[in-house]
């Protein structure tokens, strides 16, 4: 009796059909999830590597364009100008800077902020050209065209400063070798021009406010009162002059 009880106590019940099915499903599901995660990780790493490579190639291709734009803007803000000996009109000796950006470049490999700032440069140049044209037409005009040249220097100083910042960012983030400029520091030149012109604009604004043309306008009613008072004063003056002197 004791032997029979011992045998029964140590025997395991046979697995049921549902247990077998559920075990198989769990193993298959777990294996599928692991396989999916491995494939997803592989695709993620490959896309990340591809995007990093495209960003580096794009950064290297743009670095030259930005360096050239910085140099062209420097030439504009330091334009010696030229006076036509026959007309006495001052003219520029430097052309308008440009930057060539391809439409088929892998822009998506860049962060959105960097992408926008670089792609906005042609529009900033276009806006600068239009602003300078307005100053040439409605500013102080010939022969000096001071307003035009002042606006041109200011606008392209800002654009040159933006280009230098973008160039430095490409060097920092994507390993593009930074151009060795030696003692030439265009950033400081741009900042100095901006400070000088902003100060000139402040002084011109103060001078214009003191000009009679820019004085506050007097209301029409007040002018009528002053005219009436002046008329009365003139009548009194005439009457005083006509009185006989005894």
Task: Provide structural commentary.
Helix content is 70%, strand content 2%. It has 246 residues and is an all-alpha fold. The protein has a two-stranded antiparallel sheet. A hairpin with a 6-residue loop joins strand 1 (82-83) and strand 2. Helix 2 packs antiparallel against helix 5, helix 4 (121-138) packs antiparallel against helix 5 and helix 5 (146-174) packs antiparallel against helix 6. The longest helix has 61 residues, at 17-77. The protein is elongated. The relative contact order is 0.08. Mean pLDDT is 81; it is low at 1-10.
Briefly say what this structure is:
By secondary structure, the chain is mostly helical.
Helix and strand topology:
Layout: H1 2-9, H2 17-77, E1 82-83, E2 90-91, H3 112-119, H4 121-138, H5 146-174, H6 186-210, H7 220-242
Mean pLDDT: 81
Helix share bin: 55-70%
Q: State the low-pLDDT regions, or none.
A: 1-10
Order of helices and strands: HHEEHHHHH
Strand order of the largest sheet: 1-2
Strand content: under 5%
| Class from secondary-structure proportions | mainly alpha
Tell me the Rg in angstroms: 40 Å
């Amino acid at each position: 009796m004791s032997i029979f009880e011992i045998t029964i106590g140590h025997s395991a019940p046979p697995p049921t059909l549902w247990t077998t099915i559920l075990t198989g499903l769990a193993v298959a599901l777990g294996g599928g999830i692991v396989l999916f995660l491995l494939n997803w990780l592989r695709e993620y790493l490959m896309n990340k590597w591809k995007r990093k490579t495209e960003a580096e190639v794009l950064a290297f291709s743009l670095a030259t364009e930005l360096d050239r734009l910085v140099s062209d803007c420097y030439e504009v803000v330091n334009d010696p100008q030229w006076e036509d000996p026959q007309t006495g009109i001052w003219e520029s000796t430097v052309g308008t800077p440009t930057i060539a950006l391809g439409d088929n470049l892998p822009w998506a490999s860049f962060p959105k902020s960097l992408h926008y700032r670089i792609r906005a440069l042609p529009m900033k140049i276009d806006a600068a050209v239009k602003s300078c044209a307005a100053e040439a037409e409605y500013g102080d005009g010939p022969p000096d065209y001071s307003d035009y040249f002042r606006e041109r220097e200011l606008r392209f100083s800002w654009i040159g400063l933006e280009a230098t910042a973008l160039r430095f960012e490409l060097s920092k983030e994507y390993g593009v070798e930074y151009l060795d400029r030696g003692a030439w520091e265009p950033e400081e030149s741009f900042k100095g021009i901006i400070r000088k012109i902003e100060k000139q604009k402040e002084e011109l604004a103060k001078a214009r406010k003191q000009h009679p043309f820019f004085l506050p306008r007097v209301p029409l009613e007040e002018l009528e009162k002053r005219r009436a008072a002046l008329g009365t004063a003139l009548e009194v003056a005439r009457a005083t002059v006509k009185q006989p002197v005894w």
